[in-house]
Fold this protein.
Amino acid sequence: MITIRNVSKAFGGKTVFENISARFAKNERIAIIGQSGVGKSVFLRCLNGLERPDSGEVRIAGDRLFGSRREHMRAISHTGMVFQQFNLFSHLNVIDNIALALIKTRHTSKAEAFAFSEILLGKVGLPDKRFAYPSELSGGQQQRIGIARALALNPDVLLFDEPTSALDPSMKEEVLSVIADIALQNKLLIIVTHELQFAHDYTDRILFFDENGVYEEGPTKQMLQSPKREKTIKFLSAY
Amino acid sequence: MIAFIQENLIQNNAWYSILQGLLVTIQITAAALVLGTLLAVPVCMLRISHKRVLAVPAQAFIAFIRGTPVLMLLMLFYYVVFQSVRIDAVFIAIIAFSLNVSGNVAEIMRSAILSVSKPQLDSARALGLSRFAIFSYVLLPQASIVAMPVYKSAVINLLQWTCVVGYISITDLTRAINYMSTRTLEPFFMLFIGIMFYLGLSYLIYGLFAWIEKRKFGASHRYYRRNTK
Ligand SMILES: Nc1ncnc2c1ncn2[C@@H]1O[C@H](COP(=O)(O)OP(=O)(O)OP(=O)(O)O)[C@@H](O)[C@H]1O
Ligand SMILES: [Mg+2]
């Protein structure tokens, strides 16, 4: 589904990672873990074109990011993203947040777009919040709307960047349970997280990042139970 | 009281002069607002451009306009630029005030656009919205929310500053009031009327903006109003 070849990224001469290559299959569930500031977010943002790699290429379902404009937009259209700080459109109410992309990129009729958005609202457990504005919602509720918005275009790939880090424990659970549902839906799911229990329960593979990029990777069970390399062992023993 | 009004406003046709002046004030304000705001759009676009050849001239234009008292601009156009051309002074006033508005409003637009946070735009890009859609449905609405209160003050300022057009022999509301004060020897009464008119116009503008700022963004409001009965 996603093919990454020799991707490197630096900011102002400071390297974030170099020559990362990876493949993620259609219904794999990937967890990305690692210390703060090592480039997990930057890596994730390279997978949907929010960051442009300095070199290398990323293909999604064959379409190359930063290829021709059409190819780029097609590649993006396979993905949906959920952000650490939710990033809901502050000027739009909940239902418009979810329906906007359907109406403006897929040219879905309003009737269909709003009907589907209401279904999604039901799925994330907030059917009666249609007309609320983001500022009127709790963090957990905002994040569930953020997930519904990412699901609106029915993407094959879902990218989560620490979706629960900005939430207190009680809200974490409500959001994680929504993500757990998605993890059972045959989508490629890539989640940057510090929730190792969630990674253990719902992901197939873990990538551990250090300041140079992917330091160690492997099947979830093996990575969590018997990591091989020094930094991974040290990182995991802290949990 | 009635006799007083009769004597000072009606018999000498003062009300007519004042109304004429009021119309001139409204005309200059409205025309300068529309033209100035239209001109502000390209100026702002040049100003936020990453190409220095475009941004620097726009920046210089804005600095010049904002640093120059509007009365100076007015006199510059009246006594220098259009000195040998016979055109209506009102037209000259509209040009000077339009330029003044364009510089101010370009800056208002710029800071409003820059105030839209990057994460909001990231969200829009991640959803695959086109550049046009991001601009129209995310950037512009959010910037307009920030810009409106400042723009409203700019409009009120414009209205009040048009009172200097008397310097280039235009009879606007202020000049008409001044004239009538001397003629009727009732300056207090006349000034009271003048102030009432300016206040009335200001309240009209406030009302208009209150209505604009109440508007909601997004397609859902109209859709659900129409389809849930
Ligand atoms: N837009 C940017 N401009 C300059 N430097 C950046 C930018 N974005 C990220 N960086 C830098 O790149 C490095 C990696 O950042 P990144 O946000 O990917 O870390 P992270 O692993 O996601 O950390 P955290 O767990 O805290 O979210 C950091 O040193 C950061 O300062
Ligand atoms: Mg991060």
Remarks:
- Residues 169-183 of chain A form the longest helix (15 residues).
- Chain A has nine helices and ten strands.
- The mean pLDDT of chain A is 93.
